[in-house]
Design goal:
It is a single chain. With about 270 residues, the protein is mainly beta. The chain has 2 domains: about 130 residues, Immunoglobulin-like (Sandwich); about 90 residues, Immunoglobulin-like (Sandwich), CATH 2.60.40. It is built from 1 helix and 16 strands. Strands 2, 3, 4, 5, 6, 7, 8, 11, 12, 13, 15 and 16 form a 12-stranded mixed sheet that branches. The protein has a 4-stranded mixed sheet with strand order 1-14-10-9, with no helix packed on it. Strand 7 and strand 8 form a beta hairpin. The longest helix has 15 residues. The protein is globular and about 55 Å long.
C-alpha cells in the first residue's frame, strides 16, 4: 500500500518592518476588475453550479457579492445543451441536470457584454473505499488527520481533489494529487493541513462529525488547484504570488471543473 500526504495551501501575507522610524507610502493603485467564475459540473443530479463574482481593489472590503444577469449554457459533446439560470445573486443552476462520465462539457458565459468559455471532461470514477482518522505527532503536538483509501486503476492520467468538512464547516485547506507515483496501486493518503494556534475549530477532535469528498478531476483542473496551492504557500520560488493556471478563456479568473463526486462521513472516536 502506498502512503503519502497532501500538503495544503495556507493563505497568509507577511509584512516586515525595520526598527528605524520612516514613513513608507504604499502605492496601491486601482486595478481593472476581473470576473471570477467558479463552475462545477458533476455526475450527481442537481449538484452542478456556476458562481460569478468580481475582484476588488486593495482598499475595498473583503466581501464578494455575486454578479447577476449572466447568460450561461453548458453543452456536451453529444450536442445536448443545459441552460443555467440565476437561483440567487451570482449563483446559477440547472434543475435536473446531471453530468455523464466520459463526456466533454463546454461552458459559455456572457455577462455585461463579455464572453468567457471553458472546456472540461468528466474522467473515470475511482471509488473512495474508506475514510478514517488517525493520530499523528506534527509540529510538536498530537493531531488527528483524515486518511482516505482507494485503489488506483492502471493507466496514468488520474487526478484527484479531496475536500474535508469538520462539523459541517468546509475546511479551507487544498488537497490535490495524481497518479505519477502510485499508478495501479492501493493508496492511503493522509490529508495533512496546517492550523494557526487560534483555529481550534479546524483541529479534528473526538466526537467531531467528519465529511470528506473525493472528486476525480481532469488534468487542467488539477493544474489550477496545484498552482493555487504552490503560489499560496510560496513553494513556487517566486517573490510574489501569481494567479493560478486557469482553463477559462476570455480573461476571467477561476476554473471550470467537470468531475465525479462521492463522499464518506463518520464520527471521530
Amino acid at each position: 500500500m502506498i502512503k503519502k500526504g497532501f500538503a495544503p495551501a495556507v493563505l497568509s501575507g507577511l509584512l516586515f518592518l525595520t526598527s528605524c522610524q520612516k514613513v513608507i507610502d504604499l502605492d496601491l493603485n486601482s486595478t481593472e476588475k476581473k470576473y471570477v467564475i467558479e463552475a462545477v459540473v458533476t455526475d450527481q443530479t442537481d449538484s452542478s453550479k456556476i458562481l460569478i463574482s468580481q475582484t476588488k481593489n486593495f482598499n475595498e472590503n473583503n466581501t464578494f457579492p455575486g454578479v447577476s444577469g449572466a447568460l450561461i449554457t453548458v453543452t456536451d459533446n453529444t450536442g445536448a445543451i443545459a441552460n443555467f439560470t440565476e437561483s440567487s445573486a451570482g449563483v446559477y443552476t440547472s434543475k435536473g441536470f446531471k453530468g455523464t462520465v466520459g463526456r466533454t462539457y463546454t461552458l459559455k458565459v456572457t455577462v455585461a457584454g463579455n464572453n468567457f468559455t471553458a472546456v472540461s471532461a468528466i474522467p473515470q470514477k475511482v471509488n473512495l473505499d474508506s475514510a478514517f482518522v488517525t493520530g499523528e505527532f506534527l509540529f510538536g503536538e498530537n493531531r488527528n488527520l483524515i486518511n482516505v483509501l482507494y485503489k488506483e486503476p492502471a493507466g496514468r492520467g488520474n487526478n484527484y481533489r479531496f475536500v474535508q468538512y469538520i462539523n459541517g464547516v468546509k475546511d479551507k485547506a487544498i488537497f490535490v494529487g495524481n497518479d505519477d507515483y502510485n499508478d495501479g496501486k492501493a493508496v492511503e493518503d493522509k490529508l495533512f493541513y496546517i492550523t494557526d494556534d487560534d483555529e481550534e475549530s479546524r483541529k479534528i477532535k473526538s466526537g467531531d462529525l467528519i465529511w470528506v469528498e473525493m472528486l476525480c478531476i481532469a488534468a487542467p483542473v488539477y493544474k489550477y488547484w496545484f498552482s493555487l496551492d504552490q503560489s499560496a504557500t510560496g513553494t513556487n520560488q517566486s517573490a510574489s504570488p501569481a494567479n493560478p493556471v486557469t482553463n477559462m478563456q476570455g480573461g476571467a479568473l477561476g476554473y471550470f471543473s467537470a468531475h465525479t463526486y462521492q463522499k464518506k462521513s463518520f464520527l471521530v472516536p
